[in-house]
Amino acid sequence: MIVKNQMNNNESEIRKGQEGEARRINKKLRFILELLIYAALIFTFVYIVPNYVLQRTIVEGPSMQHALEDGDQLMVEKLSTLFDRLKRYDVIVFYPQGDESLHEYYVKRIIGLPGETVQIVDQTIFIDGEPISENYASSPFLDAGLASEPILLGEDEYFVLGDNRSISLDSRYSSVGVVKRSYIGGKVLIRIWPLDSFGAVR
To answer: Are 67 and 163 in contact (CB under 8 A)?
Structure first.
């Protein structure tokens, strides 16, 4: 009897030891898993989101009045650019001539799409020889610039204008020119500031 009880006690202690060791291992594994999850979340929000999903930008200047005002803070989504979902009249941000050394985006509205021919005659925009009707302009053209002659867009090129057309520096001028898809940082999604103007940008 005494021997049997001792054997049972030893087995019980061994089981307890094994269970305790298993708990310690599980605790370490949970800790490591939590660290990996936190690291993945930090990487996602610090790198993935601002580079591939959403980014905040601030409007400087009056070239997009009245859709956007100087100082407006915007959220820009990048998926439309990545998956080639940009449409006419979308408001985009881009580096002029793809020059990222400027460290600032331009904000303009897409008027001409890849493969189209754009021309401005007087106050009318022609796409593939047909006039388009749009009501985004807050001021008239003072100069058609390069678009006084037909501009044929390449398969990855867009023609953009600012809404405040009497002062906007846009695709009418060689310093900006047509905008290649690779120059585009994203499509303006919403205005987040000022709060009384919060909402989608059209």
So the answer is: yes
